[in-house]
Amino acid sequence: MLISLEWLSDFLDLSDITGLELAERMSRTGIEVESVENIGKDLNNIVVGEVVELAPHQDSDHLNVAQVNVGSSDLSQIVCGAPNIKQGQKVIVALPGAVLPGGMEILESTLRGVDSNGMICSLQELGFSDSVVAKEYAKGIFILPEDAPVGEDIVSYMKLDDDIIELDITPNRADALSMYGTAYEVGAIYNQKPQFNLIEERDFAKDSKLGQVQIEVESPELSNAYQIRLIEDVEVKASPLWVQLRLMKAGIRPVNNIVDTTNYFLLLYGQPMHAFDFDQLESKTLKVKSAAEGDSLTTLDGVERTLEPTDTVIASGDQPIALAGVMGGLDTEVTNNTKNVLLETAVFDSQRVRSTSKKFALRSESSARFEKGINVSKLNESGEQAALLMAQLSGGQIVDGVKEFNQLNTDNFQISVHNNSPEKKLGITLTKEDIIKIIDRLGFEVEFNEEEFIVDVPARRWDISIEADILEEIARIYGYDNIPTTLPTTPSQPGRLTQKQQLIRKTRTVTEGLGLNQAITYVLTSKEHASLLKSDEHSLVELELPMSEERTVLRQSMFPALMEIAQYNQARQNKDLAFYETGRVFFGQGTHVQPKEEERLAILLSGEYKGSQWYESKKNYDFYVLKGMLETYFESLRIASQIEFKSTSEIDVMHPGRTAIISLAGEDIGFMGQIHPLVAEEFDLNQGTFFAEIELDKLVAYPTADLVQTPIAKYPSTSRDLALLVDDTLLHHELNSTIAENGGQYLVSIELFDRYVGENIPEGKQSLAYHMTFQNPNETLKDEDIEKVMTNITDALKDIEGLEIR
Hints:
This protein has 806 residues and is of the alpha+beta class. Residues 410-485 form the B5 domain.
């Protein structure tokens, strides 16, 4: 929300307050300020000019030579290439010596042999964004009103020396999405009561046209208030300069006096409105209803959209003419030919507005306010005032009366607060008089009794509903900086880490020792990314009021977040990635039940882990590098002997031939492998990207072996090699397990040191060579002892089908 200090000053005395001072105070009382901008603070030597004479440039087919009255005794000659310049216009003139935004200095110059003493400016050249300049001036200079005083400073005339404060409005403070709500907020900060000067009523026309209009609301769940007013005999034209400037400062492009009025009151009251061309309605029966399957509507942006029953529409008869709360239809748009305007003010269901807005990617000022909530107590006043201004700006006549469906409850509501709550919960001691002053500054009313005080909260603050909300209001108006800092008094007890905390610390130590960089990511992600690795048993946990489309649900895996980080780094030419993260995932367990939380470890590898050198070639991360890291991790936890890697092709996001389930004592605790090439391509990652995820909670619960320190053996070890010819489908793990189970107590290590497939090896076979080391810590092993063990091993291996000992 962009707040103009000049506009805000209509309601409060801010003569001695700057935008930066106000931004500081608002930030300290709970509404974050993104920035403070002032277009006109550095503009000078720019005045109102009048084009007295205009002639074509002799050496150009698009330039004109203008003689401009700038309030001095002599006319200024200016060469101008704007296509919309005409004789007699009042224009913005930057005189020699002026410096425009961007650092462009205006000098006396010669253009194609003709002297030019200044510049006739567009709004963009004064610092306005293209997106807020009226389309008729988008490609040319801005034309000032005929009564603009020649020679007056343009900053003063257009009120450009105005601090524009950008508020970052959170969903719980949607009341500040209007000048009305912001005025009350600022009034509370500076202990002022905002004053709102309403437009005086004028004579209303008696006409049967409004009597022709009928309103039908399918269900109060779609809209619990819908009002229609009729303004006749309007002249559609440009709005006055003051209206256009206030809209532009708020980031809205002026269109015409009718549309601008609806946008003006959207900013003033936070109440979205829409204007229909009354004469273009096929039926005078307006229906608020769910769209029928297959209905279509061409919206104001010229796009035809196919509707669904989840969309709420305004229909003329059965023909949709607007997406309720989102955007109007092209067929009933107000144009220069419009004579009679039907003005709509309404309240629509926030969830359906959000659903439609999200589906069609139509995020508008109206939809944003309906989604977060509006001040329903001002529905009627805002509609009346908008109709009055519309009639005033267009020369039209308001038809007496209003057609409406209204089931709103606009009563104030009462909240009880215990008398000792401020001291007990805020840590501040307030007298009865202190509380009355604070509540009065907020514009609320309060009554006291023996044990509690009751606060009467107006409907404009619909975010306040419980005692904690009142205490928050008291705290922020009292001043967070004024609340004393105290330490809690609790019994002292020695602290220590829990088993889980110890495991997480150990995990970080080991993974960082392996050369991995820690990532800390959001637990929130999009539905699309969350569905990449989603539990079939548990639903996604969704936020009711997400702050962005990319952060709407809690993750069920660490996969989406690390993939997003990898994509971010790859896009910035950081191609060699080695990340780990310890964090939580969340699983829905039904309505009104806390989600289940699990602690996870995730690792992502991509690119090179060793660069090319003169003495060796580069080495890329691969399946076995990741597996080795995990084995090192499990060894550090003393559970490596209970870990098993089992091939799987059941995880959709992983490569079906290069993925393994990780099991601990027969229980699955995670997975590892190469990311599926199609998924990697979707995230713009290279094909050699690897990922692992482990459930840390299951590691915490598993009893680890005691750490036993043994002296270095005094007696030598001995070794044997064994070459096997086996089927190429036989897993190394099976052979390793067989050797270990039959190798006796003195077998200390098994190493696969060679694998060969090719010449002299039958098709479908592979040659594997194992190196086994034996050692007795108490005496030297004898050959006969080793041979006996080797016989046990070979006998066991012979039971494996298709195995041949070479």
